[in-house]
Specification:
Helices cover 0% and strands 48% of the residues. With 126 residues, it is mainly β. The strands form two sheets. Strands 2, 4, 5, 6, 9, 10 and 11 form a seven-stranded mixed sheet that branches. The chain has a four-stranded antiparallel sheet with strand order 1-3-8-7, with no helix packed on it. A hairpin with a 6-residue loop joins strand 5 (46-51) and strand 6 (58-60). The chain is globular.
Length: 126
């Protein structure tokens, strides 16, 4: 059974940092892209960051560029999202997702991802 388990969310003051982790029991983890998405209350889910299977290609939403960093450790089947200089607008539930395309790059569309975690809440107080 495929499982993606996020951790690391919590309450933080504006300007603070958090590191999210997502450990995946996906057999093909080492050869698929991974993504982070978020959903704020009353808003649609949006792409935050993505990483290709090697970790050599990454992409970010304009709203988080320069503040967030995505990385992966294929030996641990884990993807990370380091978040710094957090703002109130970063508040939401953060989801990791496993991509469909073997040896593929990340995609900003949620339709390109097969499996999703349950989400972890990030709350930034201003």
């Amino acid at each position: 059974q495929v499982q993606l388990v996020e951790s690391g969310g919590g309450l933080v003051q504006a300007g603070g940092s958090l590191r999210l982790s997502c450990t995946a029991s996906v057999r093909t983890f080492k050869v698929i892209p991974m993504g982070w998405f978020r959903q704020a209350p009353g808003k649609e889910r949006e792409f935050v960051a993505g990483i290709n299977w090697t970790g050599g290609d990454t992409g970010y939403a304009d709203s988080v560029k320069g503040r967030f960093t995505i990385s992966r450790d294929n030996a641990k089947n884990t993807v990370y999202l380091q978040m710094s200089s957090l703002k109130a607008g970063d508040t939401g539930v953060y989801f990791c997702a496993a991509g469909q395309q073997i040896l593929g790059s990340y995609n900003e569309s949620g339709d390109a991802y097969s499996y999703w975690g349950q989400g972890t809440q990030v709350t930034v107080s201003s």
